[in-house]
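#onboarding

Welcome to the new folks! Below is a worked example of what a typical request in this channel looks like: someone posts a single protein sequence, and someone else replies with the predicted structure as tokens. Don't worry about understanding the tokens yet, we'll cover that in week two.

Example request:
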Amino acid sequence: QGSGNPAGAPVIVWLSYNVHGNEPSSSEAALLTLQALTDRSNTDAQQWLKNTVVVIDPCLNPDGRDRYVNWFNSVAGKNPNALLAAREHSEPWPGGRVNHYYFDLNRDWAWQTQVESQARLALYQRWLPQIHVDFHEQGINNPYYFAPAAQPYHEVITPFQRSFQTTIGRNHARYFDARGWLYFTREIFDLFYPSYGDTYPLYNGAIGMTYEQAGGPAGGLAALTRSGDTLSLADRAQHHFTTGMSTIEVASQHAARILTEYGNYYRTSVTSGQGTYKAYVVRSYPGDAGRIEALKALLDKNGIRYGHARSGPARGYNYDSRREETFTLSASDLVVTSLQPKSALVRVLFEPDPKLVDSATYDITAWALPYVYGLRAYASRDRIEISSAAPARTGAPATSTADPYGYVIRWDGLPAVRLAASLMRAGVRVRFSERSFELGGERFERGSLIVLRNGNAATANLWNTVRRLADSARVPLVPVTTGLVESGGDFGSTSVRALTAPKVALLSGDGTYANAVGEVWHYFEEQLQYPVTLVNSNSFGNIDWSQFNVIILPNGNYRFLNDKAQSEALRNWVSKGGRLIALEGAVASIAALDWGIKLKKPDDGGGDNKATAALLRRYENRERDELPNVTPGSIYRIELDNSHPLAFGYPGYYYTLKQDDRNYEFLREGGWNVGVLRKERPLAGFVGARLQERLQDALVLGVQDMGNGNVVYLTDDVLFRNFWENGKLLFANAVFLVGQ
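Example response:
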């Protein structure tokens, strides 16, 4: 809490193993470490433990490890085959790296979308160790990697956190040198993205580090490397065991200094705060309640304090306009102050556009929470006093228990989607309005759901069912006594359409990216509790697709579309009334067909001069030469046509996460260009200079009418790692509203 550590307190070292299930040597090393620390005859370890507490988490990803180990045991022979050509070194889809839902748990520390992360971080917040190590494996031919890390470092990382990595690394080097083991430092693995097992602890005040041993799924029990050496599982475990014990040794030797710096870190956080901005104000507007509640849940998981301020004038950086502006605080606005124990984490998660000292980074470069949640916000340089008391509730009326004509549900976020899904599963007929309307003095935007007695005669205890499900989803119902509206379409109008419950197939398996499949699977199964059928993409030609009215192609490379008979079968299915939803790489696969969507051709301006420069480039710069053409993950504001069902529930814009260089032409005949990128520059994150020039006048979100059906194009990942909250309603629109 910023009060420092009591005299004589131990330093806490937390060792995390096997977050990627198919990097198995670390769990073996965990057992070796546990044995050494509990061995009474190990005098060194016993001495270290006098002032050090060691927390060991031997397997962060049990489902992934089980998947890998069970597969390996099913294909390995009596004796290990060290040749990499042997099948025991080639793991099949989806691989053990990911958890049950195909999520990479080493990208989930801050977001905590997965149950494993939620349980682990709840315990982590209670201990808040001073040192944390995340044990991994990498390519089979790479030497061992340990700290210090590569650039870029985030600015919040303190001089002590930087220098002490070197102190630990030198101790590791001493042991590795004595044994003749190869290693490297300060390359590849940077400290920027906030949701890794090294950066997240760093942003919570610890010394956070990643250690990488050669191996991974290619390692097996023994593997013949490029150098001609045979690398065994025992070797790999021994290397991790050595760095783990070396870390504990250094922690014990420097315990007093570590604890002093740790106490100073939290005292400074509380008294001065991190960075230029002293408060982050999230504005509260009608329709934002669900996303604000989701944001508060994330802050709670991370131990970040927030509150509300008195009404009055304020000044700050407007995330949307990217300008310093004066605004008026409302008592309902959410305020996160930087003067708190988690100041560094607050800055990292809220800072509009963090400084990137080296664009050659390992992951996305933009994640400011107001963009992620689609909320209007300001970053203020001024201190804003907050109260933890919630403001008085206004707006949403209490649900009537009388017998109404019907209920209206605002379509403004994931809770409303969850309610719609549960109503359809319960057999309740749900309608939605394509036009905004006014009724009873209230305005309801496009997409608002309507439940009436008409069409629901078969549902026993209709209103009790509706109210019970709404209470469970925590969604307010607005009772109405008439279907005659004051403006807009009456409830019997053709603009009020009935929802047909989607019967969803999700392609998976070879050719699809496991993470992308997992995002959609988890969205349906855990967030909506709505059924989805995972279908093997290799079985496409053998499926009776009449069982489904929605097919989802997640990010991937779909070779079956190269088969003319199969691509025509898919097109015919769409034309007969099906809805095809294509995401990211799947859109590129369809663009290779003559369906209407087309990739833009790169501008080859510069001609001979550019070609000559490319031929004369330096070999040492071969990786950096590509940086002007890429974006590892940046945020753009795109224009939305929110009169189209794909954009219902949104203002006239959407914050998209751009991760590739694909650029699509606007749709022509039969197409709706719902989300487009015009001449905007990125709001946040790195985009190469040449790519910035090309990312203009391009389609990002579109719908193509095809016969009686539709193809929905989502060229960016609207469900990115399932923490991109602002995209979840958009994906729901694609599944539930488009084409109805």
